[in-house]
Amino acid sequence: MRKLLVLLISFTSMGCQSNKTTTSPVVSQEDIVEEAMLEAPNLQQYETAYFASGCFWCVEAIFESVKGVKEVYSGYSGGKKKNPTYEQVAYGRTNHAEAVEVYYDPKVVSFTKLVQVFFGSHDPTSLNRQGPDKGAQYRSIAFYKNDDEKKIITSYVSLLESKNAYDRPIVTQIVQFDSFYKAEDYHQDFEKRNPNNSYVRNVSIPRLNRFKENFKSYLKEESH
């Protein structure tokens, strides 16, 4: 734990900024649907966790690099509007945040470690902003589904504060999970599908690489 705290203190996050206008997919919608049908994993045996920490393109890629994580989906959570669209969320027309749904094997990676990944891969002291991303849709949220998860999150926040891990107060919201709405198909695996996209190249990939450098023992073999 002491080593992890040192890593957390030294980690500096730029955040992530998705385009305010709809980004055209590089591959066709038909290709995405066909591939999804062929590769859709059976996720019934996995647990789920939900986090928001800026643009979901970046957050999805980070959690997908973690050992024990089977699948990650980009989407929207934290608000009340049903079935929101990207445009509605991006322009602040809902109270949703860009979030991720993480499917993980608790025998390989614990919820505690996922919380550590969450706090170690963004700036939890930045209110309604991650790097260049501005607005409540990019706020920091750790969702919990039960009292045990809530205790894990609050205890870890207390630990970070007691160790003065940050020079500003942590403003992450700790919110009971209600619903998650999967984002449009072209947002899924966006970083992986669009490595030459200027935003991905200049913001997403550097953020992912900083996380990998600080959390080497948490990574899947192929992510090193």
From TrEMBL:
InterPro entries: Met_Sox_Rdtase_MsrA_dom (IPR002569), Met_Sox_Rdtase_MsrA_sf (IPR036509). Pfam families: PMSR. The keyword Nucleotide-binding does not apply. PROSITE patterns: PROKAR_LIPOPROTEIN (PS51257). It is an enzyme of class 1 (oxidoreductase). It catalyses: L-methionyl-[protein] + [thioredoxin]-disulfide + H2O = L-methionyl-(S)-S-oxide-[protein] + [thioredoxin]-dithiol; [thioredoxin]-disulfide + L-methionine + H2O = L-methionine (S)-S-oxide + [thioredoxin]-dithiol. Residues 48-199 form the Peptide methionine sulphoxide reductase MsrA domain. The active site is at residue 55. The keyword Oxidoreductase applies. SUPFAM superfamilies: Peptide methionine sulfoxide reductase (SSF55068). Its EC number is 1.8.4.11. One of its GO terms (molecular function) is peptide-methionine (S)-S-oxide reductase activity. Keywords: Oxidoreductase. Has an important function as a repair enzyme for proteins that have been inactivated by oxidation. Catalyzes the reversible oxidation-reduction of methionine sulfoxide in proteins to methionine. Belongs to the MsrA Met sulfoxide reductase family. This is Peptide methionine sulfoxide reductase MsrA. It comes from Flagellimonas pacifica. The lineage of its organism: Bacteria, Pseudomonadati, Bacteroidota, Flavobacteriia, Flavobacteriales.
